[in-house]
Fold these 4 entries.
Entry 1:
Amino acid sequence: MNSNIIIKPVLTEKMTQQGEKFNRFGFYVATKANKIEIKEAVEKMYNVTIVNIRTIITPGKVKSRMKRSGVQRARVNKYKKAVVELKKGDTIDFYNNI
């Protein structure tokens, strides 16, 4: 069940800065997962203690582009992000397997 909750980590410049400054890390998670399930999954996967957790649901968007046959429209799926704040001293290293 834990492997279905966490989809992948958010590896952006902004999340890297928050990780260094405030010890916060972001994850794309399942849209139906709640904060308790996310907390248990992250703590079990990375062996850390979570102090605070925030979730963001981003709605799907309609994007369009021009093709030979005219304008083509497509919908991007909605997704959910979780920003977890770890206990002082704990850290997650996403780059150790590269």
Entry 2:
Amino acid sequence: MAKGMGDMLKQVAKMQRKMEEMQAELASKTVEGSAGGGMVKVTASGNQDIISIKIEKEVVNPEEVEMLEELILSAVNQAKEKAAELQAQMMGGLTGGLNIPGLNLPF
């Protein structure tokens, strides 16, 4: 029984190393969300950190601040959604699609 437990611990350690590698890889990947026909673009890392926001001058109108705020919010949410999908795709291969409690994956 001790051998079985040792093998299981080795597998868990191996899985943890792979997860750390995947998290580093996710941090190096980017996704983009956009709104307003590309007038507002948000770039996020694979681990859902917002990296940049680009706004075309044409949508900067002091009379329409609320519209610009909505476009930014929409683009941010789209970028975060794409990053979450990327995480699920990459991590799904590691965990075999299992939802393992305690892994603290952000999706």
Entry 3:
Amino acid sequence: MIPWATFTDPEVAHVGLNETEATAKKTPFEITRYALGQLDRAIVDDTTSGFIKILTPPGQDRILGVTIVGEHAADLLVEFVLAMKHGIGLKGIFGAVHSYPTLAEANKYAAGEWRRRHAPTRVLALAERYLAWRRGS
């Protein structure tokens, strides 16, 4: 879990496994991506190129590896390094309060992308039917 960064334009930072390493180790994974072009701070600073890519085991929020390409990628990576070292998953990052508008919000939004894809659809459908019944719809 040693992070590395290449200070080019844009910066590239990485920690943990990438797809090639995970495939070679026969570690099953899924990828979550977040484009920095969607981030308010990146839009204001005109630094919208780049992304965050997170590898997790299928259906789990445990972080196997992260690659960030973009403005201040090395700085953004620190939150993921800390999460991996202390066993904090994407749910923990998503639940953390981030200042607005900052580039660090990208980490939360990336975790939110994972969360959206893993929302408990059956429970949500049941809650929707219950609330409709309560409203008399």
Entry 4:
Amino acid sequence: MTTWFGFAGPAGLARTTTERMNREIGAALGTKAVRDRFDADGFERASMSPAELTAFVQRELAKWSPLAKKLTAAEAGK
């Protein structure tokens, strides 16, 4: 199991806004200060396109949702 962080906006956000945010966040992740801080904290960095992030989140939901539902049902049955 891993913890990950991503940026998301509301549904229907303008494509130009999404693309610019992705570009600017990618640029920030590439700066020495951010790289050094993430390295010091033990974080791995990975830049993804908006489509790649969406696919990643969908895979994570598909992977972990069954376990979360099972644990929630077990807790409710106590």
